[in-house]
Amino acid sequence: MHRIYLDHNATTPVDPRVFDAMLPFLRDEFGNPSSLHWFGQTARAAVEDARADISRLVNADPREIVLVSGGTEALSLALRGLAAAAPPGRRRILASAVEHHAVLDTARALGGQGIDVETIGVLEAGSLDLVDLERRLADDVLVVAVMLANNETGVLQPVTEAARLAHRFGAYVMCDAVQAAGKVGVDVGTLEVDLLSLSAHKIGGPKGTGALWIRRGVPMRRQIDGGGQERNRRGGTENVAGIVGFGRAAALASGERLPRSADVTRLRDRLESLILKLPRTAVNGTAGRVANTTNIAFGGIDGESLLLALDLEGLAVSTGAACAAGAAEPSHVLRAMGFSPDRIESSLRFSLGTSTTADEVDAAARIVGRALDRIRGTARWPKAQGTR
Ligand code: PLP
Fold it and tell me: Which of 75, 100, 314, 356 has the most beta carbons within 10 angstroms of its beta carbon?
């Protein structure tokens, strides 16, 4: 069976060129970048080359990039590190209601340490309610968290507008760009943010490596003590092969993923229009989106049952955030957009990749149509076989 993978927001396959770049650092060039000898310095040079490639992806100064274990750690370091270094009068965190759990749960955990956390609403189309943000801002806000692209709907958030509002009150702005990098241009200067998170495995790199960009001057207390790695901002021997892979993936993302986004948009729109021809279907998140994502409600259907039926036919999609799948917790993103529990339960996310083909999209739409027919009991085949 040819399996069709439309779950690239959960993770992407490692690009073969990334794999090739990583291999030497798992074999002969195994040095510890902190060592002064040839082995160590070879690894150090590779880490710094990767850091430069990663910084170019977001137009940042390489010295402001902290290499970490992934998007989750980047977001955790940003919030916890800021909170630990915050002046006494700044005790509130504002986070958009559609942030990833890595943001929302970290912020809530800080709630036990004297920090107040509030969520900013979103509009039904999925984008941030700037009026709600402005209403909540005051001089006691430490940081405002607004992601660039939502992982469940693909909706792009008005980050620069939010940053301008937040800065009027002296708050820092943290932008989760994990799902945006490689899909839209990301420029820390244009965004006007203070911290920005990235993850390698969403852009054709390996899992378990990511980065936090911290604008110079932003107060930050490191969260992992130990060796003085990463300019004292994150202890621990570097994941050299992973970082090298991340660097290669970042270079490829700048060079060729972005230019391909027009093709991906065309395929996503084609998939969407084919599925929307099926009865009782609707798109969740109609604001401007990244190229590869569509989130679709299938009226009267249990999304998880549909997902499993599609998987049996070789089509891999998702009910929302990968880490929430199986947790039987309805999507907080769709809930924040004001959708009914029934609609939320009936929704699936399709996320395409740069290797997705038109044939795969057409086959995926056919598989969805057949599965829906079967589940809704409208399939013709039982009659044709003489059964009732
Ligand atoms: N932020 C967003 C928007 C994500 O989609 C994800 C992963 O799904 C993360 C953060 C966490 O990244 P990682 O898997 O590298 O920890």
Answer: 75
